[in-house]
Amino acid sequence: MGELYDDRRQEPRYATSGIYYVQAAGRSKPGRILDLSVNGAMLELVEGQPLTAGERTYVVLSFSGQPEFVADVLVQHIVNDRVGVEFYDMSPEHFSTLATLIDQHQRSR
After folding, report:
1. 8-state DSSP, 94
2. How many CB atoms lie within 10 A of CB 87?
3. Residue 50's beta-bridge partner residues?
4. For the chain, how big is the Rg over CA atoms in Å?
5. Distance CA 57, CA 68 (A)
6. Please, what are the averages of pLDDT over each run of 10 residues along the chain (109 residues)?
7. Residues 56, 74 contacting (CB under 8 angstroms)
8. How far apart are CA 109 and CA 104, in angstroms?
9. Beta bridge partners of 40
């Protein structure tokens, strides 16, 4: 299944280090951001996270040296303690932060 999922990716993903929170009534326990693309991310599933495949939610993404930003995401799948999310709506300011992070990863290759 992983190979099929990889084939459907439209943008390259970059291994990264950052943390995320599910934005609900307050913040959930933090989890690690495992990889990132302009279209989505792979997140570490943390026990007690209010995430369900097929649902939309908001996550706060935090990377060292960058402002936190919020993304409206669709939870695509949850497999082996990993959560694949697709980005939906993001303010222009937050998208600019994401684009800067992706650009930094592309330049470091």
Report:
1. H
2. 20
3. none
4. 13
5. 16
6. 46 83 79 92 89 92 86 93 91 84 75
7. yes
8. 9
9. 86
